[in-house]
Amino acid sequence: MALLEDARYDGSLAPGVAVEDVVTAVLAVTVGVQILSRQPDTAVEVSGTLDRFWRALLPQLIH
Q1: The pTM is what?
Q2: DSSP secondary-structure letter at 13?
């Protein structure tokens, strides 16, 4: 959370992005990925899921 607050302070975080919303999204994905990773034969799917998540989220966060 501190890194997001730092990004807000230095102008790197896109306007209108709520730090708490980003934290909630990352937490939800982390928990979901952990659950998926415990299932048999999901390693490739988990990796792809994380890749797609960050490709979708990161461009929305930067300014």
Answers
A1: 0.79
A2: B
Which candidate, 60, 63, 52, places its Cα nearest to that of 22?
Answer: 60
Q: Tell me if residue 40 falls in helix, strand or coil.
A: coil
Amino acid at 40: P
Tell me the per-residue pLDDT of 15-48, one tens digit each, with 9 for 90 and over.
Answer: 999 999 999 999 999 898 888 888 777 766 777 8
Best CA proximity match to 19, nearest among 4, 37, 2: 4
Helix (H) / strand (E) element for 23: namely helix 19-37
Residue 19's H or E segment, with its range, is helix 19-37
What pairs with residue 62 in β-bridges?
13
